[in-house]
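Hey all, quick one. A colleague (J.T.) asked me to put the pyridoxal-5'-phosphate job into the tracker so the inputs and the structure tokens live in one place instead of scattered across chat threads. No bug as far as I know, just bookkeeping. Sequence used:
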Amino acid sequence: MPSPAPQPKPWIAAIAPYVPGRSTTDDGRRVRKISSNENPLGTSPQARAAFAAEAATLDRYPDAAAAELREAIAAKFGLDPARVIHGTGSDELLHLAAGAFAGVGDEVLYVRYGFSVYPIAARRVGAEPIEADDRDYATDVEALLARVGPRTRVVYLANPNNPTGTYTAREEVARIHAALPADCLFVVDQAYTEYLEPEDDDGALALAETAPNVLVTRTFSKIHGLAAERIGWAYGPAPVIEAMHKIRAPFNVSTAGQKAAIAALDADDFVKKSHDHNLLWRTWLEAEIAGLGNFGLRAVPSKANFLLVLFEGALTAEAAYHGLMERGLIVRWLPAQKLPHALRMTIGTEEEMRDLALALRELTAAAG
Ligand SMILES: *Cc1c(COP(=O)(O)O)cnc(C)c1O
């Protein structure tokens, strides 16, 4: 008889682990990684300098309240600093939202092909993840609202969404919010918001200013190029933020991370350069993919720093994934997210994009 051992709770056992983007090939070679939506331009010089300056303070705990960082965020976006909460990446904040507002017997709702952290955050606290039908990979407001029930405690919406890159327009976000019960927390995850065009404000931050049930999350990992330091923030009603503070880790963002993030908020030139680079090469790659339409390739319309490319012809996504890897390019293949027919490709450097397009042309031609 096997000896007794600690048993994870059933809802923990039910979690399908998060799969991070790879940085080495099957045979362990280090190659060009366009699999994790990182900034190909790196980090702003200001943020790097601020990070480096903290080497002398390694023996001291960081500011648990991240007061200076929260003040800087509030000043930048015209918010109340008391209602800004900092997180170990926005991932922690997404978990805190579920942790504070959902539990056993509750439901957590999101659109199919939503960010893969949402089901983990739901199950971690014993809640049931519910996936609403999409509309050609994008948010279907009616389908989402049709799944709202008396047990729905949290609704997550990534805007733009990862891994699809799709954008839910301001009117749709407003419609979702208007239809949700007031006791259901609406979490709008704006990890890629800086990649949008100015006219594409989805209105969620303004909603979070006044509504009692809207939380917006942001990150320094994507356009600010600070993924290694794990810094995110969220904004919402005071009682929501207060509940989340109770369960966050006390020293959840490092000192160097806080300083780097403060500096990053001032690096407007770097953010603009990153945005413009992304727009240019995303548009370019979209055209390249459209040129391979005869081979069954199709890019889902994206407003983020990546493209989800569907493979509906002779060349399968799996074969393309391995073919690209052999050519030194790692993209994201997503069978675990029910997208075995798709690859997510981060917009990288010009050289990476040209090599990627060339490789796709060769692979499609070879597959016939
Ligand atoms: C990358 C990403 C995040 C957050 O990442 P952190 O590094 O934890 O801040 C959150 N939501 C979506 C949709 C993402 O793609």
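Adding what we noticed when we looked at it: The radius of gyration is 21 Å. The chain has a mean pLDDT of 96.
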